[in-house]
Design goal:
Length: 289
């Protein structure tokens, strides 16, 4: 009789293992960003069998941070047996002498019960306060974009299809939700003519108010977007030509933005430009309609 043969069990493909994001040499308070990224990575990635609240709290405690922060992980900790995470970029939502907001923009891969891999991601507003020997995390605010609209504005499809506009998962979900103003969409498309834009944040995941103030931010209203990389070079990188950043900021104003922030001071009476420590690592493009 022929010997029965067994069907080999398929081996699940491994999840991506991107390196942990690190701040560059030109960062203001680089350890603030490093601290935020370490926490988000501890909450959003785990080996097989490392799921669950108790394991997450243990990973947070190993960083010397309050374990209860794990209870604020929200969409960063879905029900999955295994997860990996890539931090696309960590940019400031605000930086003051004793407090900070770091927007940690993520892609995440999770293993399903059948071994399949799902890809997603979120943007986490990590709040920190100054402490010794390192800054500490006080709160987490993971973004949750709304559901996709049945009929988003026509410009949404054009932006999503434009190869010169790079969108992380949360920003793409913002566009699909139909909650982003046409002024933002049209400006993205116009700027994608002369530039390649790497967008960090549109609406979800940004502080509701301009950090350190009670003034509402344009981001949650769907009237702003941030760009962290232009033509493949990071805004914060000292090797990025300042002329490139200046040209981008001026073209953003020409595209209709009333409030353009970035690392470059652009003079002019009644101008639309500003610079500060928060915007040394990205360009902000805001609209008032």
């Amino acid at each position: 009789m022929p010997t029965p043969t067994s069907t080999p069990t398929p081996t699940a493909s491994p999840l991506p293992e991107p390196p942990l994001w690190q701040p560059g040499p030109a960062e203001i308070q680089p350890d603030v960003k490093r601290r935020a990224v370490e926490l988000v990575a501890a909450l959003g990635a785990w080996p097989p069998g490392g799921q669950g609240a108790a394991a997450a709290r243990a990973r947070v405690a190993a960083l010397g941070l309050p374990p209860a922060l794990a209870d604020q992980a929200g969409p960063l900790a879905p029900a999955a047996s295994e997860a990996s995470l890539e931090v696309v970029v960590a940019q400031y939502g605000g930086i003051l002498a004793d407090s900070a907001s770091v927007l940690v923009v993520c892609r995440q891969w999770t293993r399903g019960p059948d071994g399949s891999v799902a890809e997603g991601g979120t943007t986490v507003d990590v709040r920190l306060s100054r402490a010794e020997p390192r800054w500490t995390v006080t709160e987490l605010h993971p973004g949750v974009a709304g559901p996709a609209a049945a009929a988003p504005p026509p410009a949404v499809a054009r932006v999503l299809a434009e190869p010169r506009i790079e969108l992380p998962p949360e920003a793409a979900a913002d566009l699909r939700s139909g909650t982003v103003h046409d002024s933002v969409l049209e400006a993205m498309l116009r700027l994608a003519g002369p530039y390649t834009l790497s967008v960090s944040v549109v609406r979800t995941g940004h502080p509701l108010d301009v950090f350190g103030t009670a003034r509402p931010s344009d981001h949650p209203l769907g009237r702003a977007f941030d760009v962290w990389r232009i033509d493949g070079t990071a805004v914060v990188d000292p090797a990025t030509p300042r002329q490139l950043v200046t040209s981008f900021m001026r073209d953003a104003a020409a595209a209709g933005s009333y409030n353009v922030g970035g690392p470059v001071a652009i003079p002019g009476a009644g101008n639309r430009f500003f610079t500060d420590d928060t915007h040394h690592d990205h360009c902000h493009v805001g609209f008032d309609f």
